[in-house]
Write a structure and sequence with these properties.
alpha+beta, Aminopeptidase, Alpha-Beta Plaits, four-stranded antiparallel sheet, binds zinc ion, cytoplasm
């Protein structure tokens, strides 16, 4: 697995930033470049049925090398990077034998990656870290995942003595704008289950994520000259404030953790005549999630009743659901990943994601899909970094999962 660093550095040299305001798939033309490159590379290492479809989704097959029946499994990663931060001209820096001290990313601009702020760095003393030069993100999210999957497939091809069933590989565009799973053809993929290689720290294994909805609250007011407004003006901003205050003050992102859900006011714009509030609603528990949506509707209703008008309109749309419901009936797929880690002396860190993954959408499209660590930290910004050793471990986990799945029971 010597070429893992080289491979990763090649992938991050492509600018693959996605764009939430685009209506095409992929959302940006530039994602095609890496898509074509990966397609060729998969062929070059000896994968079969390599396909690149009209939306830049890549699929490929590693055929089984055993005679007995083995479930078809898949590994999935995304090649786009976050619209939050530039990925143009990424200049990765290698830091061998990391000494646990501050890393100067950029001398001129005094940009420093420091363990006094990012304590996770101290876990990687003595390892080889790949960082940015402080001016872009790195793109370990999720080019590390792609590196690990390609490297694992290459390893299995070069080591036919390792027994495995049929393995499918899927690389997608546009995960960072929530659309990676949208045009993913689950039937064509044809796997019984899959894993996204898109988590962070070594050991992470996730099969629970939020249930998610978005709410747009529109408040209607009435503008009248302020000097003659008595009994006539309706200030939508003040009504909006009432609505904001009607929701529990401590159920917000900065006051919650673990399995605690929240309402998050993400945007506000207003004038006397009209105020718009945008919320996201999150909860791991489906019952509590439904209750939160009702709670919002009720808050609007109460205010409308007190005003004797329909001043507040509210539109709530579900976004994605907790994959737990789809994974729990097939828990052996989590058990296999956990066993693979234990066999490799990696301590599994099983926790609920406070967010969503492509795997949650895929799970609801019929492809149960837990998430496994890819090794990077501080995604979506200039402090992003990844230890090479973590990529090696993730690659070994993929190989081990393939092996365990093919074991006769
Ligand atoms: Zn990702």
């Amino acid at each position: 697995m010597q070429n893992i660093t080289e491979r990763f550095l090649k992938y991050v040299s492509f600018d693959t930033q996605s764009d939430a305001n685009s209506s095409t798939t992929p959302s940006t033309e530039k994602q095609w470049e890496i898509a074509r490159y990966l397609t060729e590379e998969l062929k070059r290492i000896g994968m079969e049925d390599v396909s690149l479809d009209e939306h830049a989704y890549i699929m490929a097959t590693l055929p089984s090398n055993v005679d007995h029946q083995v479930p078809v499994i898949g590994f999935i990663a995304h090649f786009d990077t976050s619209p939050d931060y530039t990925a143009t001209d990424v200049k990765p820096q290698l830091h061998r034998d990391y000494d646990g001290e501050d890393i100067v990313l950029n001398k001129e601009e005094n940009i420093i990656l420091s363990p006094s702020y990012f304590e996770d760095l101290l876990m990687y003393k003595g390892q080889t870290l790949i960082t940015t030069d402080g001016t872009t993100l790195l793109g370990a999210d999720d080019k590390a995942g792609i590196t690990e999957i390609v490297t694992a497939m290459e390893y299995l091809i070069q080591h036919p003595e390792i027994k495995h069933g049929k393995i499918r590989v899927g690389f997608t565009p546009d995960e960072e704008i929530g659309k990676g799973a949208h045009k993913f053809d689950v039937d064509k993929f044809g796997a019984e289950w899959a894993y996204t290689m898109d988590g962070s720290q070594v050991g992470e294994l996730e099969y629970e994520n939020f249930n998610a909805a978005g709410a747009v609250v529109t408040v209607h007011g009435k503008i009248v000259h302020p000097g003659y407004a008595k009994g006539k003006m309706i200030n939508s901003m003040l009504i909006a404030t009432k609505f904001i205050n009607a929701l529990p003050a401590n159920e917000i992102p900065q006051e919650t953790e673990g399995y605690e859900g929240f309402f998050h006011l993400s945007e506000i714009s207003g004038s006397v005549e009209k105020t718009k509030l945008e919320y996201i609603i999150r909860d791991h528990d489906l019952g509590l999630f439904q209750q939160r949506k009702k709670q919002m509707l009720k808050a609007a209703q109460n205010i409308n009743e007190s005003l004797g008008s329909e001043a507040i309109e509210i539109d709530i749309k579900d976004q994605y659901f907790n994959m737990r419901e789809k994974v729990e009936p097939v828990m052996h797929i989590v058990d296999i990943a956990e066993q693979a880690m234990k066999d490799l002396d990696i301590k599994p860190l099983i926790k609920a994601i406070r967010g969503g993954t492509d795997g949650s959408q895929l799970s609801y499209k019929g492809l149960p899909c837990p998430n496994i660590f890819a090794g990077g930290h501080n995604f979506h910004g200039r402090y992003e970094y990844i230890p090479v050793e973590s990529m090696v471990k993730a690659t070994q986990v993929i190989v081990k999962i393939a092996q365990l799945t093919a074991k006769k029971v």
